[in-house]
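explain this:
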Amino acid sequence: MTVTNETAVPRKGHWLSRWEPENPQFWDATGKAIAWRTLIITTANLTMAFIVWFMVSALVVRLPGAGFKLNAGELFWLAAMPGLAGGSLRIIHTFLVPLYGTRNVVAISTLSLLIPAVGWFYAVQDPTTPYWVLMVLAFLAGLGGANFSSFMPSTSLFFPKRQLGTALAIQAGIGNFGVSIVQFVTPWIIGLALFGTLAGEPLPFTRAGVQSQIWLQNAALLYVPFIALFGILAWFMLRSVPVRANFRDQLDIFKLKHGFFMTLLYIMTFGSFSGFSATFPLLIRQTFGGFPNAPDPLAYAFIGPLIGSVMRVIAGPLSDRFGGAVVTQWSGIGLIACAIGVSFYTAPTSMADFPYFLAFMLGLFFFSGIGNASTFKQMPMLFEPRQAAGVIGWTSAMAAYGPFAAGLMLGYSITLFGSPNAFFYWAAFYYAVNVAINWWYYARKGAPNPC
């Protein structure tokens, strides 16, 4: 009998009893519709997750001007904390989908984002809020970063291998837009009485000797209804693929040599994207903030994540066509060049150096975005579906430490050497090692595992 619609696919609760994406008849008749519906809903939820994860990076550059007594080290720690939480919690998310299913994991993890969003809404209205409270809320913002390690493995189960590069790039790329959204929208909405007196009173804000009013709480409150809506939508509209495994079964991914190598490669790409996304505003402020007419960090910070997100979407189909390893190779070479290049403009003598600094930083986002897509094409080609999903989740978890690592290492580099260059030199070396690994195992002619 020919399967003609979703109702012809048996299911128990939210679990589908049959799922055969590599079967052309099944895919065309019913699988494609379910897969694309799932992609749309989970991508909307993932975008909210990234917004919450990087909300702190948009707020920290405004806290000192609003009366919060925080030094540079404390600000970098606040920016880094969501990365620490995101990476740690992603380890847990790596194993959730085969245990509880797409519907439960996506819906519940999205609704959990209400905790940091509401918490930051209240905390930023009082400059005397203790630093430890801000740190706890920054850690809770990492709940948004954690979701990636279950959402993306879930998507990898819904699509046939020939379309995985495109599907994963669309989801991750659009989800990554959440970084740009929060960094672009925040400067606008915190300058307006968006919700009147219903959302609390403004704080006095001083920048470059000019005083105004600021509604920092808007940066969190704006997203609360969207988080609730998308979470509820996921609960009622998503289904779960019948690929199930207990926790012990899933541990077999740690025996895979190429799982380790792909983790290194994804740290190179997404670790860079997430790390620079979280620290870019503070890096602009630290490097050029002392000059007359210094740039507003949030006027530029959103551009980098926007470029990286767009390139992730574009590079997905390119990876499907030319192979993920080849695209990853060019991504790594570009990252090396930009990491070295930006180091020449981190000790500026005037604002004339800013365009060059900005260009190399945007180059880092450009090439990391490309590699984010291409590495996710490589993983499903190297492993069977359940293991590929696990490897995607684990590599995502490790790369999510990017904001924490970048914030911590940039802070120490500036403190110890008076410049962020030590960090950029280390990054260039790490990129070079990964380019060599990718070339030897995956990209060269005659490579043992072309992908």
Remarks:
- Confidence is low (pLDDT under 50) at residues 1-5.
- Residues 225 and 449 are 46 Å apart (CA to CA).
- The first helix runs from residue 24 to 59.
